[in-house]
Design brief:
The chain is mostly helical and about 110 residues long. It has 2 helices and 2 strands. It has a two-stranded antiparallel sheet with strand order 1-2.
């Protein structure tokens, strides 16, 4: 008897039971494939939205550069904080987005391999 993870709720169950005692998931090929497909679609949706957000953040970074360029061009000796703050916030947001994209991408590839 092997211990496997329920494909729906991830609790550890015996490979010999056909219904998960935790969530009532019926373990058969059609059900498991349908569940995988739902999971894949969710991951693809998240990746798509994250990519859209990351383009927005890149635009923000470009805006920070533009702002910096405009401000330093106007004979100010004290450089303004605004562009730096915007750039730092954008860079951190971009990094976080990339980390999530990497995680979702790996999860998506895992569902395909099975
Ligand atoms: Zn379950």
């Amino acid at each position: 008897m092997a211990i496997i993870e329920c494909p729906k709720c991830d609790s550890r169950i015996s490979s010999q039971v056909s219904v998960c005692p935790q969530c009532g998931f019926q373990r058969d090929e059609a059900n498991e494939e349908a569940l995988r497909e739902i999971h894949r679609r969710e991951l693809r949706d998240r990746i798509y939205h994250l990519k859209m957000v990351s383009y927005g953040v890149l635009t923000l970074l470009l805006a920070a550069f533009g702002w910096y360029w405009v401000e330093t061009d106007s004979f100010q000796y004290q450089s303004p904080m605004g562009p730096y703050v915007l750039f730092a916030a954008g860079a951190i947001a971009y990094l976080v987005i990339r980390i999530y994209l990497f995680k979702f991408d790996r999860a998506l590839r895992r569902t395909r391999r099975r």
